[in-house]
Amino acid sequence: MSIQAIPSYQMPNVSDLPSNKVSWEIDPNRAVLLIHDMQNYFLNFYDREQPPITELVHHIECLKQQCEEQAIPVVYTAQPGNQNPTDRAFLTDFWGEGLADDVAQTAIIDALQPAVNDLKLTKWRYSAFKKSDFLNILQEQGRDQLIICGVYAHIGCMLTAADAFMYDVQPFFIADAVADFSLDEHKMAMEYIAKRCGMTIATKDVIHMLQEKGKKQEEGLEMDSFTFDSMRQQVANMLGIEAEEFSETEDLMSLGLDSIRLMSLVESWRQAGLQVNFMELAEKSTLSAWWSLVASKKQRV
Description:
Elements: E1 31-36, H1 40-43, H2 53-69, E2 74-78, H3 85-88, H4 91-95, H5 103-106, E3 119-122, H6 134-140, E4 145-151, H7 153-166, E5 170-179, H8 183-196, E6 199-201, H9 203-218, H10 228-239, H11 259-271, H12 278-283, H13 287-300
Parallel strand pairs: 1-2, 1-4, 2-3, 4-5, 5-6
């Protein structure tokens, strides 16, 4: 009736990932990292020195570090010990009495201990949304994306992803940062989410996506935050002068903005979603002319 010892298996790699039906991008301003049920009790059914647990823990550590660097909230789920039979309900029929009220079972594993500001949700059902305030917490913080990692892939992780989808929260299922009872069940969860309710993605791709988004935000180049002042500051940084040292009608080429720098400027703006080209900027190389061009293009988006 309880969980049996789980044989080791190789963590899926990028070539094992299914094709996704959607092409969502993770936004640091919208996302929350969910570290699901990484308690000693659940990890003790594995050989922790073998895959997939070695990769699981390392990848979650990497995700958590990246999220902390970009101020993305981190939420843990954890089941309590000695659950009242009424609270546990049908879980007892499938999994027995569950965790004892002992930190050796209920604690999050040492390698992934929650930080002071991390949120810890009490877990009562397969989905992190059931019998909890999780949805309200996301809505109050204006967050509508969920990065999911932990155990077990085809049970709590998958059903949390399905619930997120039904609550209009975009789930990102991190294929090599979850573990399961077997490789087959692990792959089943990956496939289901990719085809029915979210994106299945690798740890390295999540981190790359977050880092790229972070770079754009640091440069002030997101479409919604692209202003005349941010444009002026970017040009000033490129020229190595103070923004107050040149006027909006001054020819920027005469100040040293050569074709190499101009091409770099064009590329950064295009990555931010502004469809400009080299000739458009070169024809009239003043801040006022560029802002008129940019403002007209922003209105069309």
